[in-house]
Automatic annotation (TrEMBL), chain A:
Transmembrane segments: none annotated. Belongs to the TEN1 family. InterPro entries: NA-bd_OB-fold (IPR012340), Ten1_animal_plant (IPR029146). The keyword Translocase does not apply. GO terms for cellular component: CST complex. Keywords: Chromosome, DNA-binding, Nucleus, Telomere. It is found in: Chromosome, Telomere; Nucleus. It comes from the Eukaryota. GO terms for molecular function: DNA binding. This is CST complex subunit TEN1.
UniProtKB/TrEMBL annotation, chain B:
The keyword DNA-binding applies. GO terms for molecular function: DNA binding. InterPro entries: NA-bd_OB-fold (IPR012340), RFA2-like (IPR040260). Keywords: Chromosome, DNA-binding, Nucleus, Telomere. The keyword Ribosomal protein does not apply. One of its GO terms (cellular component) is chromosome, telomeric region. It comes from Coilia grayii. It is found in: Chromosome, Telomere; Nucleus. This is CST complex subunit STN1.
Length: 123, 419
């Protein structure tokens, strides 16, 4: 039996949307952030971003995408599934992690928002 | 019986599908929509997005799944709205390359290091092939662009690719522009109803953006042609065969600019006619983005050629380019054909420079639409040989052109060519 193993769609989420566990565990998401810390022994990375002068941090489990070249301070795009941690936070188990340093963040945010509003309107 | 009735209610009859410009284009749809499109009741393998018949699509997304088979790769592509399976065939050239011994490469790489003035076509071809091979091998996390036809196999939608390549997008410029472009395309084309029953089928979406003054005329041209075809029971025809039917309409065509108008007076009526009938046909066949590209090319060519040659020639050349471009979408190998056409327009005046420019434009375009790179190379070589220009820089340029993906790059390249 030929079974297709396509993963679920990773929809864009802003880093500041992960905080309150509003997203169900196991949801596929894609998000972005600046790599501020990488702990290879724990396969853990932290992506930070700022939104309305508040700093947000997303922790990422990187064991699936290793080895990768961690550039501290560079922007990354992550695709993966959310997992709730024991400490009460949300962690992202990354399937894809691409360095996109130099991306026009404002434009990306605008594009994401445009796409969302387009879907809302046509729905 | 009942289902057939339903079909005839939601779907326009298949005979009229060709009148919808979306039908013959690669529709850039969200993957979500491709997955949800319903299959036609009349013809399996054709799908309907709203009222538009669709069978080929154009998508861009991140590879999230990969499986290798003997003849093809199966990639799962995620564009943020859905995930779809794409079957990407391994090309024969790709396989041949693998079998080549390594010794050959070492030998040829030494010839690259030779005098910079020398040009080794085999070496350049090999490089092109290598570049081509690189962009057709993808891994999870890479950005993939696929054009192909939609299929449903074992209950799953998938895309049978006709063209695919890895997109180098280090700062997400391509992805962002894609995300911003799609809503516009949807609003302008895919959401506009296709209503073949009304007087101007499908024209609203094509011409509304480009040339508003053109649409009523186009509607009449369509009507004329349709009447003719129905009356004579014609099944197949070339645009040339029915050209004369449109002659009366040409007189009513609005001319675009005053400058052009004065130039037009000098031009012979035949040329005028050609230009406009071609125009009519082209408008008929294309979607907004192709139209924009062609308009852009037209102005470019006209701008560069004007000081060097006679006006009618320029017009003729441009309209040739335009018409050829449309067929190009259908068949990539027509690249050479285009060049051939341009070359034979000729006969008056010193046209070397113009021809070279035209060919160069063609090459650029071909690269934009991802024609096989070596076809482009041949074209450039031919131009160089015939125009007797010292063209090593051109050559280098044309090789670099493989990476061109936007009209912006095209513009800068053209400027360089001018030097």
């Amino acid at each position: 039996m030929y079974v297709r193993m396509l993963p679920a769609t990773a929809v864009y989420h802003f880093p500041w949307e992960f905080q309150s566990r509003a997203i169900a565990e196991g949801t596929s998401v894609r998000t972005f952030g600046r790599l501020t810390c990488y702990l290879p022994e724990e396969s853990k990375a932290f992506l930070t971003s700022h939104h309305v002068s508040v700093k947000y941090q997303v922790s990422v489990q990187t064991s699936y995408v290793e080895p990768f070249n961690p550039i501290l301070g560079a922007l990354y795009i992550v695709l993966g599934e959310t997992e709730n941690t024991e400490e009460g936070g949300v962690m992202l188990r990354a399937r894809v992690m691409n360095c996109v340093d130099g991306v026009d963040l404002a434009l990306l945010q605008k594009a994401i928002n445009d796409q969302r509003s387009f879907f809302q309107k046509s729905a | 019986m009942e289902t057939e009735q339903v079909a005839s209610e939601d779907e326009p009859p298949s005979m009229l599908w060709g009148l919808d410009p979306v039908f013959s284009a690669f529709a850039r749809l969200y993957i979500k929509d491709i997955l949800l499109m319903r299959e036609s009741h009349q013809v399996p393998g054709i799908y309907f997005y709203k009222t538009h018949p669709i069978f080929q699509v154009d998508i861009l997304g991140i590879v999230v799944f990969k499986r290798e088979r003997e003849d093809f790769y199966s990639y799962g592509v995620d564009d943020g709205t859905g995930v779809i399976n794409c079957l990407c065939w391994k090309s024969d050239k790709w396989k041949e390359q693998d079998e080549q011994p390594k010794g050959g490469r070492v030998a040829s790489s030494s010839s690259v290091a030779g005098p910079s003035g020398g040009f080794n076509i085999e070496e350049q071809l090999r490089r092109l092939q290598e570049a081509q091979r690189e962009i057709s091998a993808l891994d999870i996390g890479d950005l993939l662009r696929v054009r192909g036809s939609v299929k449903t196999s074992r209950g799953q939608r998938e895309i049978m690719s006709s063209t695919f390549y890895k997109v180098s997008d280090p700062v997400m410029a391509v992805q962002i522009s894609w995300m911003q472009e799609l809503p516009v395309l949807y609003r302008r084309c895919y959401h506009k109803p296709f209503n073949p029953a009304s007087g101007e089928p499908g024209t609203s979406s094509t011409t509304a953006a480009g040339q508003p003054s053109f649409s009523p005329l186009l509607g009449r041209a369509t009507q004329t042609l349709r009447d003719f075809l129905r009356e004579k029971e014609v099944r197949r025809f070339r645009p040339y065969d029915v050209e004369h039917l449109l002659h009366p309409l040409v007189a009513q065509l609005p001319l675009h600019t005053e400058g052009e108008q004065s130039e037009m007076q000098q031009a012979s009526t035949v040329l005028l006619l050609r230009k406009h009938t071609n125009h009519i046909f082209s408008c008929y066949h294309i979607l907004t983005y192709t139209l924009n590209l062609c308009n852009y090319l037209l102005t470019k060519v006209a701008f560069h050629c004007a000081p060097h040659s006679s006006v009618p020639m320029v017009n003729l050349v441009t309209c040739k380019i335009c018409t050829m471009l449309f067929s190009l979408r259908e068949n990539e190998k027509l690249c050479n054909h285009i060049f051939y056409k341009i070359w034979h327009i000729d006969t008056q005046g010193p046209l070397d420079r113009m021809k070279s420019i035209c060919a160069c434009v063609c090459v650029c375009v071909c690269v934009c639409v991802r024609v096989r790179a070596h076809w482009c190379l041949y074209t450039v070589l031919a131009v160089l040989a015939l125009s007797k220009r010292k063209g090593t820089c051109w050559l280098g340029l044309s090789l670099k052109l493989q990476s061109i993906q936007s009209t912006h790059h095209l513009e800068t390249t053209l400027e360089k060519v001018q030097i």
